[in-house]
What we know:
The protein folds into three domains: 66 residues; 113 residues, Aspartate Aminotransferase, domain 1 (Alpha-Beta Complex), CATH 3.90.1150; 249 residues, Type I PLP-dependent aspartate aminotransferase-like (Major domain) (Aspartate Aminotransferase, domain 2, 3-Layer(aba) Sandwich). Helix content is 40%, strand content 17%. The strands form five sheets. The chain has a seven-stranded mixed beta sheet, sandwiched between helices. Strands 13-14-17-16 form a four-stranded antiparallel beta sheet. Strands 1-15 form a two-stranded parallel sheet. Its main location: cytoplasm.
Amino acid sequence: MSLLKSIPKIDKFVSKSCFDGYSINLITKISQVVIENLRIEILQNNINEINEDKLVEEVLETYKELVAPSLQKVINATGIIVHTNLGRSLLSKQSLEKAIDIATSYNNLEYDLKKGQRGERYAHIVKTLQALTGCEDAIVVNNNASAVFLIMNTFAKNKEVVVSRGELVEIGGSFRVPEVMAQSGAILKEIGTTNKTHLRDYENAINENTSMLMKVHKSNYTIEGFASDVTFEDIVKVASQNEVIDYYDMGSGHMIDLPFNLSSAEPSILKIMEYNPSLLSFSGDKLLGSVQAGIIIGKKELIAKIKKNQLLRMLRVDKITLSILEDTLNSYLTNDLKNIPTLNMLYTKIEVLQKRANKLKTLIDTICKCEVIKNQTLIGGGTTPNKKIPTIALTLEYKDFKPNKIEELLRRNNLITRIENEKVLLDFRTIQEDEIEKIESIIKRVFN
């Protein structure tokens, strides 16, 4: 009971000079919890003395943990360019600086400067997308999942959408095409088999309640062997002949041809637009190399109907997103591709990666055993499933430490690596030139 009487009073405890400069409200809340825990420990006979210095230390440690930013900068040494867990595409500093200038000022987000009246927020990216893709109109929502949902809800509520069984995709976070369609009010009409779908399957599925023929990008898998599907070009033709909508959920979507012969399997947005489709949707923060967004392009009368859907207000994007996206699209329009970090990493030559790897090896080979090797990596983000691209990596070994231990030590210092063939790899496909000395510093700090 004497210990209970010695428990410090909250008001007196938080008035200590060691808490000067901190938020007194937060310090008080934390102190209440700490002191209540102390009371419980005393009642359970787990302690026999009260050390106020330790209580202060516990309060301050909790305070610092609470106010420390959870979202932190990391170095991506995995080699996966569009890494979903690490923020997908890097934003251009130039684009972000322009967005900061716009966002910290009043702007014409929904104001037409020429007419002096209310304008439309989507107009800021429409003209560029029209010039780039030849589309009639466009709209932007907060991600491609929203785009899929909005299109389904606008055109296929209580109507059938025809989709191949081989394209009933589930992507990360349990996002499933059939469930999204059900939530939107659309009725899924499955055709074909898992491995084979024919053009006649689409033709035979069309009836008076059919609204749309939909193709879905296989973002995280491929079907090999005795398999075939129908090209979107053929789907567009059948849809046109039967006066229904054709729609391609491209998932990632890229504006220009990809290196390493990837474009033969993954046609670009510009190639798809040659088929004169009704609607396309794709992500902004994957191979396009911009901010998170779901971009819908297509026929003017269809986009106009989407704009009238009341759900659009819940899914629309803000001035920062529009500013960054507009700048990225302008970079494509002016062929200023150096302003798109995702493309820079994708197109960096092996010789450059080799030079960077050798530089780091020279800086750390007295600390770790390391070797520069040729390797392969994935682009990531559901962009080019099972298609690997060449890269250069640096293997890391340290004394008798197991790979998992090395990976953990580096990860705790915000250096994210990958383990392959029982070795930790630093993959230079995603390591920036200005990060080499930072990696050197981390390795010296961890292993010295």
